[in-house]
Amino acid sequence: MRPESPVCPSLVAWGNAWLAGHVGLDEAADHVEAAGGPVVAGDVPLRKYLANLRVGGLRELRLALPAPGDPLGLSGPASFNSAAVDVGQAVIAVADGQNTGLLPLPDHRGSSYVGVCLEVHDSGPARHDLPSLAEAERDLSDAMRAATEALTSVDGPVSDRPDRLGQHGGELAPGYPARAHRVATLATRLATVLRLADDRGLTVAQVAARGAALRELDRAVRRALVAAHHAIFEPIRNQ
What is the pLDDT of residues 11-33, one digit of tens each? Predict the structure, then answer.
């Protein structure tokens, strides 16, 4: 499952909207599966699995978008963190007593079936050092300015501008504040730009300069997406 897959962001956005009472379970599951295909957790269909989690005390879903050296959103154990970094994303189901980590893997059952299987792991407690939406928005703005300044000094071939920048994964569900929608949309568009970055035709020094700028922007983009997807519960969490 590629880091840019919409499965985990969609599950967190629509799952939290369901938990907060803004949408029903069927609507939430429909949106998740529209983004990523049919979803099972182990061998349990998504709707039933979410319902079972709620009976077990599910309070919220949290997004992890880790990268090597930056386990953003993860809190162990080490085996789960390592697997999540390999996948590039995860969902933490925060419940009474025990948290559960969900890793999306391709599910190929038969020649024509393509879906997602959520691999179930134990997870540590929810992290409380993640950025607030306001902090993440400021960091994203700063990283954009720094990247713009760095990249304008790097002469090289200009990549074709895509007709449509990616949208999946940044679309939040009903109930999220307008600021979260704005931050998630911008971060998703920037994530697409990062994936399209091309070092062909650049010198070693130019590659190094651009690489440093893009790494900082990538970090800010991931932090912004995580903060936006958690924002539906942010006022409650800060009380």
Answer: 999 999 999 999 999 999 999 99
